[in-house]
Description:
By secondary structure, this protein is mostly helical. The protein contains ten helices and five strands, in the order H-H-H-H-E-H-E-H-E-E-H-H-E-H-H.
Amino acid sequence: MTQLITPVKRFLLENLDFLTRDLEPLSEEYLIIIDLPGQIELYTHVPVVPTLVKHLTRFGSLNISLCAAYLLESTFVIDRAKFFACTLSAMSAMIMLEIPHVNILSKMDLVKGSVPKRQLKRFLDPDTSLLDDDSNRNEQRDGRFMDPSDKESVMGGGSFHKLNKAVAQLIDDFSMVSFLQLDVQDEDSVGGVLSYIDDAIQFHEAQEPREPNDEVEYGNDAMMG
């Protein structure tokens, strides 16, 4: 993957003008969506996306209001250690990109019925005590002692639990990450996420103010013409 990213990175960073050429004619009424790949290294330690963001927001004549929408599949809540690892990645992206940021738990329809709503709320504002709920499984599961050399035992052992707790505590100390729920089959859910993004980029504030009778006057002028 790194071998592929390097030439793509070089090409993109050396040819940013092609973006400027196509985006500059667009007015503030346009909402531009840039779909990016899920390779986390692009947002953490490879400076491709941060450089692209700076080009679109700070350099040249574009000065586009950007909002990053970081999507995390809701199925990660089933494995709490993975959930906190992904939450740490989201926080890293927030710090690297330095733009308004919305974190989203996507595909909520996949966990309906398998995760109680009260439990799910603890993931929206990541609760470090979620890891404590699994602590009784560190050395023993189903009443049986687990072999220390077994992979499942290692992944559920005390050292692994301490590492996860440290990650969760770091996330809690920064207190930057919270999640919105997205179910594409629910119109209200989609509308709620779009509303947050609109607020983040101040979309409505950028629109030209209109007087209540503007449309009426325009209509009369057209009829007279």
